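Troubleshooting log. The previous structure file for this entry was overwritten by mistake, so regenerating from the original sequence record. Sequence copied from the archived sheet and checked twice against the printout by T.R.
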Amino acid sequence: MTNTPVTTQLTQQVSPTLLRSEIDKRIVKIRPSSTPLDQISRMAGARAAGSMKVDYYSVDLKAGSILTVSNSPAASITKDDTISLQLANAATICQSDTILFPAIDNGAGQPLVGYVIESSGKYIKFIPTNIDFNEDGECDIPAIPTSSLVVRMGRAAGELDVQTPQFATLPTKETNFCQIFKVQIEESLLQRLSDKEVGWTFSDQEEAAILDMRMCMERSFLFGSMKSLTLPDGSNILLTGGIWNQTDKEFRYNKSSLDNRSVISMMRQAFSECNGSTRKVLLAGSGLIEKLNTLEAHRVLTGNERVTKWGVDFDYVVSKFGALYVARCEVFDLCGMEDYGMIVDPEYITKYSHIPFSAERISFHKQGVRNTEAVVLTEASCLVLRYPTAHMRIIPE
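Regenerated output below.
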């Protein structure tokens, strides 16, 4: 193989495709609970990436509510008048939408409701719909202070309307790099032929190497920083970005006073904003797991069940908001973050693989390099989060 160009024919000879299927079946059985994130991504299947640079799109649902950024004083209006209001992002609300002000009393003990007749720039104009006009055709509108919540409700079209403002929510383009993960196991021919006191074979070394490789990949998939490096010799190294920094949603808790109420608040935030599944996974350090284990189950939070899913053993915690599969993740402890955790939605984690997990057997003996046989295990892949707000970091204060 020396001084021989790499060809597809040579690649097939050195690394037959049969090896890939064998390895894929083996790696998911090697201590799956030690690498829960990598395990979940493998069991869900990977998308083939045609390049080491992966461009993907993430999108969240259109916001259901928005805050006002200006004060609208109380006033008296007629049937021909409208109310103008400045919002943080008026594009969220369109013409013909109905809107609700949960904290604004219409004067009859009900939340104020309005119908939007114009939406442009940062402003909307609406007509109040649940305030009665007096005999003079006037009504008193309550003040709408700054930071009031405006809830977007259903659109209302007229009998002759055939069109409506277009619904548009555009995905955001993101980029991640596939990182080439490698490990090499090498054994001399003399070592292979020698009698051993225990049955330690080359396959045992492969298994140990795969476990170490997966645990290192787990750390990169979680906390990696995306970067393209150019080394002094001119070679290029791509580092993958971890999912920890792919979401801005986070929950902070007081680690000295974590109680059931805090956990329920955490689950409320994890399952809110109309995103994601009703079952998610909590990957946590041993410190957070310890605190969760000290809590008592009660009628709105139960956690006495243990289940196995994706080959990993989880504690199953159920609340009125949703259910969590809870597992200890060794990565947090190794990174000095034993009180941290992350809630991920397996439905919206995508693994891209440019080079699937494969094995290449190399005979350095035949090449005349040294009297050894080796196996090089390789995978070039990355993890990305779709619907970033479906996932959440958990951070102690």
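The CA atoms of residues 226 and 241 lie 4 Å apart. Archived copy saved in two places this time.
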